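Researcher: Here's the sequence for the chain we discussed earlier.
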Amino acid sequence: MPVIRAHEMSTGNLKGVEHGASISLILDHSAPGEGPRLHRHPYDETWVVVAGNITFQAGDERLDADPGDVVVVPSGIPHKFINRGRSRANLICIHANPTFDTEWLE
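Model: Thanks. This is the structure I predict for it:
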C-alpha cells in the first residue's frame, strides 16, 4: 500500500499505473474563471468539489456544484467545467482508468 506524498505530485496528477492502482486522479486548483476546455474520456470521470463554486457542462447539460458535491460524467460524454467563484477552487478529479486518456474537443 503506497503513500503518495503531496511533494511527489508537483503537477497534481497521479497516474494509477505508476502505483499499482486502477484509477488516476488530478488535484485541481483552478483560479476564478478557469477550468479545462471541452474534452471526453473512454471511461467515467468523477469530481469531488472540496472548495469553490464550479459550473460543469456535460453534453448539453449544465449544473452548478459547491463544496461537498460529487459530479459523475459517464464515458464518452464531452465535458468541461469552470470556476464560477471568486477564489481558487479545489477539486479531486478521479479518472476511472490507470492512465489518462483524453480527447480534446476544443
